[in-house]
Amino acid sequence: MQVKVAIGTIAFMLTMIVLGYAALREPARLDESTGAFVGRSIETGGQIFDANCATCHGVNGQAEECYDAGSGEAIPCKGLPLNSYFLVCGEPSQRIVDLGWEGTKFQYIERTVSSGRSGTLMPAWLDQFGGPLRPDQIKNVTLFILNWGDEEFCAQEPSSFAWPDTVDEFMAMDDVQAGDPEAGADVYLNLGCNACHGMPDQEGSNAVGPWLGDIAETGATRVEGQSAMEYVYHSILDPNAFIAPDCPTGPCTDPSLMPGDFAFRMSTNPQDMADILSYLMGE
Ligand code: HEC
Ligand code: HEC
User: pTM here?
Assistant: First the structure.
């Protein structure tokens, strides 16, 4: 009798241990399956990106290398870089703070992709707004974009060249040569200024920001005491320092729609600044 009780007790305890272990494992198993689910979403999102977005936002979302979807020929990138520290790192990320967006970066990207950006080349993608993608596909591509901001990528904030306070001091630096307007025209396209400002030699070609074809004159009238060149230098480094009055769709919004990361993006080659200034000053 006593033996039976003992066996019963041991069996009961063993059952509890097995059940308890299974219960403890349960959250871990759930995590693994959500992980796998997110992994699949990102993978699908990557396919959606390559098929629909890379023509404008570039291979790997870097807006550096773009190919025509039909012919496969290399073309200039028309979209902004999305694989960018300022868009995908931190919550809220710097881009979202600069735009005064109230919400998460996920919501910002999901919304922008869904409804597009009117007045720009960025189309609406959600079926409900006439686009080709379902809500779950928009979510997948959003997860894919945010996945660029992994721990390693976000661990190091890009460091900026120490831009001097005035354009004269900048131009006087030992490493900076007199600007080359032809090289400046390439920089203008490579950095995607044309996506918003159009081409300086085509009045009215601007979609989002002011036309820059006459900035050599109007620039001198913006901020008391600043020459046109000084003004453009500061406009590029810190778009919110002064908000231009007129944008193609009405008064320019504050905060500025212009990305605030050119100070970083031009850090790898500050000569680009001298070149783009000479291009815009029509020298
Ligand atoms: C025809 C060119 C084009 C295509 C194709 C395109 N975009 Fe864009 N996209 C743009 C342009 C131009 C902008 C900048 C809009 C502006 O001036 O505010 C932009 C902006 C964005 C932004 C906001 C970036 C920021 O920093 O504010 C996101 C996110 C984005 N696009 C995602 C996508 C995704 C995802 C796809 C594919 C489903 C896509 N885009 C396809 C041209 C394009
Ligand atoms: C995503 C759109 C966008 C891109 C890309 C962009 N800008 Fe802008 N930019 C704007 C908007 C909107 C304004 C007006 C609001 C303001 O003053 O910041 C502006 C303002 C300016 C001004 C002041 C214009 C005036 O009439 O006072 C200059 C100069 C300028 N941008 C130069 C550039 C250059 C150079 C580039 C590329 C390196 C660039 N922008 C890229 C949107 C953009």
Answer: 0.75
Which distant-in-sequence residues (6+ apart) come within 8 Å of 265 by Cβ?
A: 81, 191
Least distant ligand from the CA of 119:
1
Distance 5 CA to ligand 2 centre (A): 83
- Cα of 116 vs centre of ligand 1, distance in Å, is 7
What span, in angstroms and rounded, lies between the C-alpha atoms of 158 and 226? 29
Name the packing angle between helices 105-115 and 135-146 (round to 10°).
130
User: Is 226 touching ligand 2 by the criterion CB < 6 Å?
Assistant: no
* Residue 258 CA, ligand 2 centroid: distance in Å: 5
pLDDT single digits (tens) 168-218:
999 999 999 999 999 999 999 989 899 899 999 999 999 999 999 999 999
CA nearest ligand 1 atom 9, residue: 122
Between 1.10.10, 1.20.272, 1.10.760, 2.60.40, what CATH number should domain 167-280 receive? Answer: 1.10.760
Q: Which ligand ends up closest to the CA of 138?
A: 1
Domain with CATH 1.10.760 in the chain: 167-280
CA-based diameter of the chain, in Å?
106
